[in-house]
## 1
Amino acid sequence: MMQIKRRYIIFFLIYKNLQLKYKHSVLGFFWSLLHPFMYLLIFLAIFSTAFPAIENYPLYVLSGLVFWLYFSNATTQLSIVFIKNAHLIKSFNISKTMYPLTELGGELVSFLLGLIPFMVIMYFLGLEFSLNLLYLIPVILLFSIFIFSVGIILGSLNVFLRDVGIIWNTINPALFYLSPIAYSYQIVPEKFKFIVKYNPMYHFLELVRDVLYVGQVPSEHYVGRCLLITSVAVVLAIFIYRKTRNGFISNL
Amino acid sequence: MDYVIKLKDVSVSYLQNRKGTHSVKDFVLKASFISPFEKHRVLHHIDLTIKKGDSVGILGPNGTGKSTLLRTIAGIIKPDSGSVEVKVPISPLLTLGAGIELELSGYENMRIALALTGNYSKATRSEMIEKVSDFAELTKEQLRMPTKMYSTGMLARLAFSSVMTAQPELLMIDEVLAVGDRGFQKKCKNRLHEILNNGATLLFISHSPDEVKEVCKRGICINEGRKIYDGSAKKAAEVYSKLF
């Protein structure tokens, strides 16, 4: 009985998130496609001549961009998820993890829906449709777990220190340019390579590009790295969430 | 008779920010000297047994832990020590309009509220929705509008009806009965009596001793986190009035 009810709650919270996101804009869902598309056009206009070394630059940018935006949107939303749902957390005895979970669920749905038209564009940009694309499923799953962990860390800390969310919004664009989205790792001068190398996003982007750009089975190297990064993030998230969750109600 | 709620020696604290540590700057400055959080005890050694069918009014000055008590019983807050045992599902009405999204329509909000209070099921969906809209006295047209266009009273009706229409086993109401116009208030009280007659248990926070006397048989008075009276509603109202 309890299980059935929980299912409804999950369903309605995801539904609510999606409705709120798109309901009152004329273009609705298409805004979420327009955003990466604008980025893509800007990048093509500005950077494609700057980085002639990158083969098939449009596909390179787009594959990274789509996944970056998922990361950026989802973590931004997750960083305020507990604050946003303060009323619900204080009024209903529902596991507090339900709120970030459904928030991510909503983000994942809109990401996947957006991925469909972008895959079509990628096809015209030269992406080969093969069974290798199925590797996207575990890649997206792993990436989502990573995003969820980062989001839980930000969201939990944000309850106590409200500027965590603001700081995250501020460093987000910086992180964008520190990640090899518009450029590639190889182009980075030797002495700055470490910055990219220690950026978790770099490894995930390479993993994604193995499938979407190179069109191959994800290489063991990046799979290993991403598994490691995700595990560390998960452990950290559990630790911070456990430490802070009992103080949520008094600080929300 | 069998009990539905049993609290044994329950103490609850809040993890509180030391004065004004709400930004990272403060945090870094202060954390190097002292822990930025301190425990602040809200409820002290509460013992409470509530039987099935009880209607309990909870009285007490502001900030003495009444809402905390209900949240502890509802399982939203975990106590530091002691045990909380609750045997039936709870329908909480702790903050009015919790979860109401102003951008969504009345119908959508209704469905969300029903799901959150555990009253949503596919089988009874349309029947419930009809009952709720009847009770709230909102027309189909109004329910299709986004709730941001509602008046405060209409919002309260919507929120209230979503909980009151079902037959809860254990209903918690935190100072939210005084909503809507006279007619709606009367309707709510009638419905409350109906729910109680059907065998529900009620925990009811109010600042009006008269309201407590009217609705409840039993009364509890809380002051500074301690239970100072537990007995008849009439006596509890007297104890409460003497506090001021």
Note: The longest strand of chain B covers residues 3-17.
## 2
Amino acid sequence: MGRTAYLQGQKAAGRKVAAVWPARYPAELLWAHGVCPAEVWDPPAGQALAGAHLQSYVCGIVRQGLELLLSGGLTTADILLFPHTCDSIQNLGSLVRDLVHEPRPCLYFYPPRSGRSERAAVYLEAQLRTLSADLTRIAGPLRDGALEGALALGNGRAAALRHMYDLRARGALDASNEEFYGAVRTCEYLWPEDAVLHLEAFMKTHAGRPRRGVPLVLSGVLPAPSDLAQRLDGLSVAVVEDDLLACGRRFARALLPEPGDPWRAMAARLLALPPCSTAGDSVEDRASFLAEQVERTGGRGVLVLALKFCEPELFQIPSLVDAMRGRGIPVLAVETELGNSAPAGMMTRVEAFLESLP
Amino acid sequence: MTLGMELRYRWMKDVALPVLLKARERNRRKGSIGESPLGPPLESTRSLKRLMTRHYALARYAEGARPVAWVTSGAPVELLRAFGCYSVYPENHAALCGARRMGPEICTRAEEAGFSRDLCSYARVDLGHALSGLTPVGRLPRPDVLFCTNNICQTILYWFKELSHREGIPLVLFDTPFISVGEGTPEVFDYVAGQIKDAVPALERITGREFREDRFHEVLRSSIRASALWGEVLATMRHRPAPMTVFDAFVHLAPVVSLRGLPSCERYYEGLLAELQERVSRDVAAVPGERHRLMWDNIAIWFALAPLSRLFAEHGCAGVAGTYPNAWAETNHYLDLADPFGSLAKTYALIFLNRGLDYRLGLMEAMGRDYQVDGLVLHSARSCKPYSVGQYDLRRSLAGRLGIKSVVLEGDMTDFRTWSEEQARTRLTAFFESLDG
Amino acid sequence: MAEKLLVAGVDVGSATAKAVVMDRHGHVRGSSLLPSTPNLSAVGREALNAALAEAGAEAGELAAVAGTGYGRAALDFAALRITEITCHARGASVLFPGTALVVDVGGQDSKAIRMGPSGEVQDFTMNDKCAAGTGRFLAVMAGILGTGLEGLGLAGLTARRPLTMTSTCTVFAESEVISLISRGEAVPDIAHAVHQALAQRLAGMVRMVGAETPAVFSGGGALNPDLVDCLQSLLGLVFQIPERPQLTGAIGAAHLALRKAEA
């Protein structure tokens, strides 16, 4: 079933749909209110409409998301949610509400940047309550136990993702890169229970001997351009781990003890996500996380997919590359744009990198 | 901090530099300005140059004598001053590099180290400087602390984190959540005020100095006054003809950005305000024959400030208002000695760049009316996403609300590789042609 | 005023220099179109002389000359110097009275201009420096595809399979086209994708100022039928195209010179 049909089904079942921009946000709170998030990362879209609103130096995620919205591609959504991920998404969220005069409710969420401190947790919790009040007005109040239920759903989905990542890392998944990321990215719109079913079915179908190839760890924002995973398959690359913002950077790598209070738990969960440039984490934390991935999975190198115009990532890449090299881990950073095809020049560089691996 | 260093700093500050700078000025005061479409230059510019040159020259001697802080333009510097820190503003320094047309040269050094050309050019200038030592001001002192607030952008956070990582310098960060809608909530202000309070013991540790509340209050008082004076300076441009232009404002805002809270800053603006008031009383025009009054949106195009100012004047156009210079007069009225931390939180969280575009639209509309503006020039700064993303719609809305025409200039603050002089001239001239009808 | 009154408009662009000689009734009596050279003043004069020759007139007969285009500042023989924005708007409303929108795709710049009821410029926008939005971009793509500039437009019309290009800068677009070639895509399909990408950028510019009709497409880009088609269908409007679209700016300049001569 396609994404739109699925979301229409969700609405028919009485849920609301929220179009959610990247990257990290309290999905559990939306679920608790019976709202199904449908994320807007890199929809196929032109730029004829967005071009009247955005300069050409604005990143593809922001441009294509706005194009999709303006061309009527988000009509299933009842709510728009803009997590404050970067300056460009910040202004996009404001632009849509204040200047394009989007009639549907626009909600905002600000992930704190002040480290994983108690102050950040307190502020997060207050914000979650405000967001919940907004959602109550749109989708109705929280039912008894809804928060606890949603937290359990979140744990279930994270556990399924961990399992799948773990199988891949151990070489126990007979799936191409394209198939793997196709499956992971269904989490961007599936209701968590459906997502878990889908991931479990995927693991069952693809159980077996792994594809052979050069084990690499991916870093960056998205497994994009869209044919990149397929092109990596063609080069016999077996991705074994990633800290992609859209994928591996969005679920905790271990089940952590949580506070009993569900609001606190939700805040704690956001603060327990892997290190991220958009959260103001240090490049050292990010490098350690990646190095650990490489070591655990036997990855032979790291391929960084730098998304053009993505400031949080582009600032960290030089030091991240240095930190990897400092640890003796081969690394290649290539600049990518969203779109339909990985440019030949980029793939040549990837090929040369593979040839250079010890 | 040794006694020797301290003595050297004081000697330079009070004795040697004033003498040196006077001598330099005497040598430079030659040569005529030639034919200019602009009115008489501001007398105060000379004291401004003296003040800022002294600030950068003294910075070199501050290392070792004072705790040195590198500060972002929207950070609560008042707190640092209570510790007697010497403040250096990388953004101001980058603007200076831009004005001296050194942007691309220094940016290239950062690009060679792997920083993308798509990143903010202020950041590239600063990182390029850190990597190469290139600067038009001799040398910047190595900081003991980095002092950063993300109320102006997230870019500054990534940039200062990177500096901190590379140079191994402690970073004190104030995270000011973006206020998308409304006036901000108590949670936001509590969160920010809490971080400012937390910074006190952190700064005591880093500087080895004790926090002095009396000094803190004195600084706050001075900062309130400097911002109020700066607000009055800008307000003189409401007069027809305007006694200065927004291009002058870009030059004369350096002290309120980087010396706010110091007595020299107050004194400077007292002098500037008196000069402007005197001009107003005599109807001295910054642009003789002022025909059109324009608003400038976004940071200056530093490398083209002079030619743009000239081009405006040639067409009888005076820039009389700007969202950027206004930022340092905008929120300081929140400062309250009875609640220093809470009021600092409001002052710094509520600046327009930290608020939704609806607020900015209202602000620009009010400025348009107050300054009787009949046209809008938007600098779409490739470097600056929070300032630039949304400008196309702002201009559309303002055209409707104020009935004014506008033009967009694609440019940058310092990196003139993205700037087409010829095309900018064409755009502006065509815009002026359309204003004349 | 003398019945024989003649004026001229000279438009020196980055790729071509154009000149028009006009009589007092606004009729074009002679015109020229030459490739541009770095000596802007000389090529401007050369273009003017060629237009004069076609009109059977001499320079001394001209009551006023207006210069426009990127080389206008160098045209020392022009009494009037006006930007190409104002001139394209004027030229389009001379050719098609009542024009509300002009899209111009020239060598160095493209622009969208919205005009008021009497042809006055109300709003305009131009491509930014690094964007893939100009005639130069088409020339580069035609070079890579080996079609020649004229062939590119014709090739695009015969496209069969839709391809997408999303790049926002010329460098990326170039490598995207090379990838498409190496993937074995057909030249007409790639040409069409190039036009579609450029048209999308132009559509954004048009929407910035407001898509109004009647609309005119001027400049060398108007000679590319596939590009015009793409933009028309993106915007849902039909463009009027001058017989010689590159002359629009020079015609506007001549008309402004006429107004001055009559004043």
Note: Chain C touches chain B through 19 residues (CB under 8 Å).
